[in-house]
Amino acid sequence: MSMTAMEIYALLPQTNCGECGTPTCLAFAMQLANKQATLDSCPDASDEARAALAAAAEPPITLVEIGSGDEQIEIGNETVMFRHEETFHHQCGLCVCIADDAEDAEERIEKAGELWFERIGDMIGAELVAIEDRSGDPDRFAELVSAVVQNDKQSPVLITSDPDLVRSTFEAVEGLAEARPLVHGADAENWSDMADIAAEYDVPLGVSADGLEALAELTPQIKDKGVDQMVLDPGGDDQLQTMEQLTQIRRQALDNNFRPLGYPTIAFARGDDPRKVAVDASTYVSKYAGVVVIEGEEPWQLLPLATLRQNLYTDPRVPPAVEAKLYEVGEPTEDSPVVLTTNFALTYFTVVNEIEASRVPAWVVVVDTEGQSVLTAYSSENLNAEVAAEAIKEVGLEEKVNHRDVIIPGYIAVMSGALEEESGWNVTVGPREATAIPTFMRRLVS
Fold first, then answer.
1. DSSP letters of 160-191?
2. Where do runs of H (alpha helix) occur along 184-312?
């Protein structure tokens, strides 16, 4: 049962030491009550308090780990219904589903392994590949699961309701247990055998049932068998019903601390129309699947989903930023132009992409503006003549080029004179819009 902030506060040492990251024990108690902190952050909590507060400090949605090593993903452990309330912490996994009766299954596994894209400095794409049992052939199923493991680009997901097939696959595929796949297919009929396998191999288990009440009855029984890493499949006849059930699971876990549904979820986007499949998948990315399984491995299907997910799971309180330093675009020489910009990730990558399009090698001085864009940084004094001059000096440009010319964004042309006085460099005002950079750069060196 959950506890109020005052009940929790009464059990804390009340020293207000600040070691937990909050200024007072009362503030920390409020975080514990809202499931936004764990008692491990308090160095002085007594054993009695730890025992009493275990339930209050436990995350409302269990953190589930799928995969291992660099391929591991973490889902769950969310604390809010809406991103603007705080942030979403663990992004959902994107999973490509391949049936084991497909003649081109091996080629599709290889193709799925290439579904990675670079966007504003991050690699985004599908972290999971699911092999779905449709043939009933254990050798074929194990062969394809092995191909995913050996591909070493994504973590495997095993989709089947046959416990014997799961066990034989673990026995046949070398390294499968170490890869910690998600085994999906526990239901009201086979849950006991599937739970035994998940506990034996220490892998997460996907659980499906006919409705949320049936799910809530299954999960405590599976947990009693030693499996706490579960992913819930609420089913649903269509997109609307699936979304409603995903939302209800999230709400029951967060608002009511209902432990039987306190696990991340999985949702399937299927159908003959690939465009509708992509639309359904985008809905589940938004609300509130922990794993989104999609039939299709075309880049045009996965890139929008990965982009949407990246936007949703970016902390709205922290702007995306790149490291403030000197960057090389192409292979610049001592005669190459110097461009100055901010470390707001979207600004930086837009500017760099347009410079690359110009085919003019250049040096790019990225100023630390706390992740703010050009105009925002200028308005807040995070980008002014003194800051820009100091950045030019710190990156050692004088040792890189034989000229003293720097190009600044057109939107801050007003500070060109002050920057010349402050830095001793000649300032050229560049375009206001990044799309004009290629033409500007080519004219500059012509």
1. -S-HHHHHHHHHHSTTHHHH--EEEEE-TTTH
2. 191-201, 212-224, 239-255, 274-286, 299-312
Closest to 317 measured CA to CA, from 81, 84, 30, 32: 84
Structural domains counted in the chain? 3
Give the pTM. Answer: 0.78
Tokens of 174: 């070398």
Q: Report pLDDT digits (tens) over 361-416.
A: 999 999 999 999 999 999 999 999 999 999 999 999 999 999 999 999 999 999 99
**278 and 404, same domain (yes or no):** no
CA atoms in the 13 A half-sphere facing the CB of 283: 20
330: enclosing H helix or E strand: none
DSSP label of 229: -
Are residues 225 and 88 part of one domain? yes
Q: Pick from 110, 109, 161, 151: which is nearest to 131 by CA? A: 109
User: Which residues span the domain enclosing 330?
Assistant: 326-445
Residue of 75, 122, 126 lying closest to 296 (CA atoms): 126
Contact 287, 246 (CB under 8 A): yes
Read off the pLDDT of residues 258-273 as tens digits, 9 standing for 90 and up. 999 999 999 999 998 9
* CATH number, domain with residue 417: 3.40.50.11600
The structure tokens listed for 60 are 């409302």
Residues 25 and 75 reside in one and the same domain: no
Residues 306 and 337 in one domain: no
CA distance 212 to 246: 10
Token pair in block for residue 23: 């200024």
Instruction: Kindly state whether residues 68 and 53 are assigned to the same domain.
Output: no
